[in-house]
Design a protein that fits this description.
The complex is a heterodimer of chains A (about 280) and B (about 325). Chain A is an alpha/beta fold. Chain A contains 9 helices and 7 strands, in the order H-E-H-E-H-H-E-H-E-H-H-E-H-E-E-H. In chain A, helix 8 links the parallel strand 5 and strand 6. By secondary structure, chain B is an alpha/beta fold. Chain B folds into 2 domains: about 160 residues, Thiamin diphosphate (ThDP)-binding fold, Pyr/PP domains (Rossmann fold), CATH 3.40.50; about 130 residues, 3-Layer(aba) Sandwich (Rossmann fold), CATH 3.40.50.920. In chain B, strand 8, helix 9 and strand 9 form a beta-alpha-beta unit. Chain B starts with 10 loop residues before the first helix and ends with a helix. Classes of the chains: A alpha/beta (about 280), B alpha/beta (about 325). At the A-B interface, helix 4 and helix 5 of A face helix 4 and helix 6 of B.
């Protein structure tokens, strides 16, 4: 019985993720271009967070006890916009107004939008901000958990490691960093630009509890998120191995789709590959 | 604002005529008045005199070490949860090094983060150019949402720190170093954000000064008075929001304006005055401040004088405007 309930959950989340991917392409078509690759690699994790793991109230976005999510790799804003719309924080119609004049959604998140916790996109900021949120929870004895998603290329920014030191120093078990390890940044493969390996060992050396997962295996994602915190006195780092551009063949595993133009033809091809929701 | 007696009766003694220490003393009072106060240090516990605060409010204190970018990001995160963080830092590092965090996480996100920035200007003269902050006002006042305050003495620093309770947005409080900042203001006068203080009357020329240069401006005015020159002295403690009325009034009522600040001549108080007057009321000006060079090493007071930041230099600038 338990098994069946769980299978139903996984299937529901996979369906949500499929819809998120469709909405990402829809939003990027509205914008005319954008960061497809890093949005699609993050999708399954975002779906598991917003439609399963996080304690949130879309109708009360400033609820003090809500779990926090900071999209440090803010260029994946199309994915964030898609989950916020599907969760009901913002109207679904905003997905058709991406980058539009006075749209709540440009290329990067803006804290003024319901459900967005920080203005991000300049890389190397989110982990420090999330550390502050987790400290704020502790000081005020609030029960919320803070999640932050980082890109792997983003980890080139040294400020991440300042925050990583502070978070483990303060034993922030209420903080989880998820690295969307899609192996590709703007100009090519991260390993060729500046290697971040050995990535899991780096986090361990900084005092974090680490788990490596397949970031597209919904069961693994759910199991890991449900097990948090992985250690009672340490922040958790989830190194999620992902595929840049996941779900659409022509966009997968290439830096060319870090950011690219999206016209009607490309939208049609992408939606055809993703199938009906 | 609540005007009850200070929490620490002898705070003035403890502040020892240094604005950076007055800030630390005021934090004790903020801790008592506002339970959401949280103090963030970047290995700056003695620089801003916050050990008494830490002893009393250990659970509302966070040490983050020598990592200014992280200190600003963490403070922004704390602020999003409803806390009121006060970041204690070195002016040169917390502005130049952390500029992107200040801009994005604090100013753009419009979070209530107060930055107490000690060792501004060339107040750490002997530390050398790496430790001088002569561009911080230009950086901070260029940011939307940011309030920028430059206290001239310990009473002003103390009151300005308390006044941040009522400011719904980020604040940059520029503080001095280990050089004494003698009292210049009426210690009984309230601090009014964005409202400059007239310290000397005069209709021949007006000196608009901030920080350590206010005391020099007062001395210059007193010398000029004996020469028959009326030099109005305006303590422009708030650089942003800017007191346009007081500047325009001075421009209309005198023969010229001298600005005086411990900051590069580009982008600081002089720049703010010139930007306003160029548009609204073109006025003859002289600007006293740091020329476009890095300062040499030296004790602060002679170093200031070397680069033209002295009562004598202010008086000369006033004479040039008043007598021509």
């Amino acid at each position: 019985m338990q098994h069946e309930i769980r299978q139903t959950l996984i299937k529901r989340l996979e369906a949500e993720a499929r819809q998120v991917r469709r909405n990402i392409w829809r939003a990027l078509r509205a914008g005319g271009s954008g960061h497809a690759g890093g949005s699609l690699s993050a999708t399954d994790i975002l779906a598991a967070l917003y439609f399963h793991r996080m304690r949130i109230r879309p109708g009360e976005p400033n609820w003090p006890e809500r779990d926090r999510f900071v999209l440090s790799k803010g260029h994946a804003n199309a994915a964030l916009g898609a989950v916020l719309a599907q969760a009901g924080f913002v109207d679904d119609a905003v997905l058709d107004r991406f980058y539009g004049f006075e749209s709540p959604f440009g290329m990067h998140p803006d804290i003024k939008v319901a459900g967005v916790e920080m203005c991000t996109g300049a890389l190397g900021h989110g982990l420090a901000v999330a550390t502050g949120m987790a400290l704020g929870a502790r000081i005020q004895k609030l029960p919320f958990h803070t999640f932050v998603m980082l890109g792997d290329g983003e980890l080139h920014e040294g400020s991440n490691w300042e925050a990583a030191m502070a978070a483990s120093h303060y034993r922030l078990a209420n903080l989880t960093a998820i690295v969307d390890h899609n192996k590709i940044s703007q100009s090519g493969r991260v390993a060729d630009i500046i290697s971040v390996d050995p990535l899991a060992d780096k986090w361990r050396a900084f005092g974090w509890e680490v788990r490596e997962i397949d970031g597209h295996d919904m069961a693994a994602v759910v199991d890991t998120l449900d097990a948090l915190p992985l250690h009672p006195d340490r922040p958790t780092a989830i190194v999620a191995h992902t595929v840049k551009g996941k779900g659409v063949s022509f966009a997968e595993n290439t830096y060319l789709w870090h950011s690219n133009n999206v016209n009607d033809e490309i939208l049609a091809r992408a939606l055809a590959e993703l199938g009906v929701p | 604002m609540n005007t009850a007696a200070p929490v620490v009766a002898d705070w003035r003694t403890r502040a020892a005529n240094q604005t950076r220490l007055a800030f630390g003393q005021a934090l004790l009072e903020l801790g008592a008045r506002e339970s959401r106060t949280v103090v963030v240090s970047a290995d700056t516990q003695d620089l801003l005199g916050i050990r008494p605060y830490i002893e009393r409010y250990r659970d509302r204190f966070i040490e983050l070490g020598i990592a200014e970018q992280n200190a600003i990001g963490v403070a922004a995160g704390l602020a999003t949860t409803g806390l009121r963080p006060y970041v204690c830092a070195y002016a040169p590092f917390i502005t130049a090094r952390s500029m992107e965090q200040v801009r994005n996480d604090v100013a753009y996100a419009n979070q209530r983060v107060v930055i107490g920035a000690a060792a501004s200007g060339i107040s750490l003269g002997v530390a050398g150019g790496t430790h001088h902050a002569l561009e911080d006002l230009a950086l901070m006042r260029s940011l939307p949402n940011m309030t920028v305050i430059v206290p001239a003495d310990i009473d002003e620093a103390y009151k300005a720190t308390l006044a941040t309770l009522d400011i719904d947005g980020p604040v940059y409080l520029r503080l001095g170093g280990r050089t004494e900042e003698p009292p210049v203001n009426d210690s009984e006068a309230p601090f009014r954000l964005g409202r400059a203080v007239k310290l000397r009357p005069g209709s021949d020329v007006a000196v608009i000064a901030c920080g350590a240069l206010v005391e020099m401006a007062v001395r210059a005015s007193d010398v000029l008075k004996r020469e028959g020159i009326g030099a109005r002295v305006i303590n422009m403690h708030t650089i942003k929001p800017f007191d346009r009325e007081t500047v325009l009034e001075a421009a209309a009522e005198t023969r010229g304006i001298v600005t005086a600040e411990e900051h590069h001549l580009t982008g600081g108080l002089g720049g703010a005055v010139a930007e306003l007057l160029a548009v609204e009321h073109p006025t003859r000006m002289r600007m006293v401040g740091m020329p476009d060079i890095f300062a040499m090493v030296g004790p602060t007071i002679p170093l200031r004088a070397k680069y033209g930041m002295s009562a004598e230099a202010i008086a000369d600038a006033c004479r040039a405007l008043a007598l021509t």
